[in-house]
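User: Show me sequence and structure for the first protein, then do the same for the second.

Assistant: Starting with the first protein.
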Amino acid sequence: MERINPQGPPPNYLLWAILTTVLCCLPFGIVSIVFAAQVNSKWDAGDYEGAERASKNARTWAWVSFLVALAGMLIWCIMVALGITAGIWAGAFNF
């Protein structure tokens, strides 16, 4: 017996996946795009659970992409601050 789901398809997060790919972390963003692209096709094929899983995976990988980029920026800022501090202590800057 085929399960009928009266709700619409789950969100595919495709826009978010594309934005995190372009603006954040390319490898994890691509994974998010792949899962986002699967949502509607699985829904149309009647694989409602698969569409839900793909939607959740697309959202998860978009978050991973965003958080990796955020961590990278934070590490970069810390390294710049440490470099400036080391330069000041070494007398590299003439004030």
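Switching to the second protein now.
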Amino acid sequence: MDELFALAERGGISVTGLINPRSQGLKKLKVNLGRLSEREAAELLSRNPKVMYRPLLTDGKRLVVGFNPEQMEKLIE
């Protein structure tokens, strides 16, 4: 679970920022993202990794969350 906190920190976002609110899996779970603590969000992602934004790209220092061509290009430059 610590990996999720490190990943989020690399992207300058919260752990809840890794969760895709439009994920079908999340909708099935009927989770209220606004009420999740960071620890609860990490537990949710650990149990249900498919609710995470995809793709996640990193160069070891920075993180691009979701399909964002502009940010992806900046990462690989």
